[in-house]
Design brief:
Blueprint lengths: L5 E3 L2 E3 L3 E3 L9 H9 L3 E5 L5 H14 L3 E5 L7 H10 L4 E4 L6 H9 L3 E5 L2 H10 L4 E4 L5 E2 L6 H11 L4 E4 L5 H9 L4 E4 L1 H4 L8 H9 L5 E5 L5 E5 L2 H7 L22 H9 L23 H18 L1
Parallel strand pairs: 3-11, 4-5, 5-6, 6-7, 7-8, 8-10, 10-11
Antiparallel strand pairs: 1-2, 9-13, 12-13
Helix pairs in contact: 1-2, 2-3, 3-4, 5-6, 7-12
């Protein structure tokens, strides 16, 4: 039985899995490198990092692996262009971008010969991306963690996008185990992106308190918040999300102008950093819809073992 490879431009991943680019400081060099070592595509989250920090993480990941390393940078961040150019200068393998849409990044990608992969939530945006020169698209449904661009399920959107474009299509949102990956490949996706499962890995950059809060979460603990980015976001209920719900004034007193446009209802960067560092009461813990299905913190190696078993057992059933 052979596990299908994921081909994006000139890149070939032996396992058709991309690790989600979870900011701030969750998807860093140790996690990305561990995923790349297993034959997947490891992603460093550039949003919320300085240009110097991103360069340092890319170099560290390169030191740890010869596998495929990409970066994910939200279009919404103010330093988007500087971060992308720095990653390209470091000869990153691919760029993934969501939370908005940049036409420029496709031009920059062509100039530097770096595949550009936007995160989209509709067939229309997937078609436009292909026309502009996208090497592939990550299709994200309602089940994803973090910022959401749709209120429709990945299971509805995925077949529409597969039918609409001829570039590789990677499904994302709510996938937490090998069985999920296998089923998504069976639907016709070329690959799968997983975030929350890798956030709950030994190599993830989150504090142990953050991981334990995620492990404890039930289906009822999942909430939606209105992010200053201007999009809904999915996370885990805690005193901070309760304060938002109760209309408590949590507006920032200082601003680092980290976003191109900010609604200033709260400071997203500081709240994500608080959570990542272990302040699970006042921080914002972004999470996918199916976090309650994850029962333990595993090493990246163990997660890939489960993914491979899932794909192979479904192939045997066929």
């Amino acid at each position: 039985m052979k596990i299908p490879e994921l081909r994006i431009a000139n890149l070939v991943a032996k396992i058709p899995v991309i690790q989600g680019g979870m900011a701030v400081r969750i998807s860093m060099a140790p996690l990305a490198a561990a995923v790349a070592e297993e034959g997947g595509i490891g992603i460093i989250a550039g949003s919320g990092l300085s240009v110097e920090e991103l360069i340092s993480e890319i170099r560290e990941a390169r030191r740890l692996t010869k596998g495929i390393i990409g970066v994910n940078i939200m279009f919404a961040v103010n330093e988007f262009a500087q971060l992308v150019h720095a990653a390209f200068d470091e000869k990153i393998d691919l760029l993934i971008s969501g939370a908005g849409f940049s036409r420029d990044m496709f031009t920059w990608g062509k100039e530097k010969n770096v595949p550009v992969v936007p995160i989209v939530s509709s067939a229309k945006l997937a078609r436009l991306s292909e026309k502009l020169g996208a090497a592939a698209v990550v299709v994200e449904g309602l089940e994803a963690g973090g910022h959401l661009g749709t209120d429709r399920s990945i299971h509805e959107i995925l077949p529409e996008v597969i039918a609409a474009v001829s570039i590789p299509v990677i499904g994302a949102g709510g996938f937490v185990n090998g069985e999920d990956v296998a089923r998504t490949l069976k639907l016709g996706a070329d690959g799968v992106q997983m975030g929350t499962r890798f956030a709950l890995s030994e190599e993830s950059g989150a504090a142990l308190a953050w991981k334990m809060e995620m492990l404890k979460a039930t289906e009822e603990d999942i909430v939606m918040v209105h992010s200053p980015v201007g999009l809904p976001g999915r996370g885990i209920r805690n005193p901070f999300t309760q304060a938002l719900e109760d209309k408590v004034d949590v507006r920032p007193t200082e601003c680092n102008h980290c976003l191109k446009r900010c609604e200033r209802n709260f400071c997203i960067m500081s709240r994500l950093v608080k959570a990542q560092q272990g302040d699970v009461g006042e921080g914002l813990i972004f999470s996918g819809a199916n976090v309650h299905k994850i029962k333990e913190i595993l090493s990246v190696h163990e997660i890939f073992k489960d993914i491979k078993n899932g794909i192979l057992s479904l192939k045997e059933e066929e």
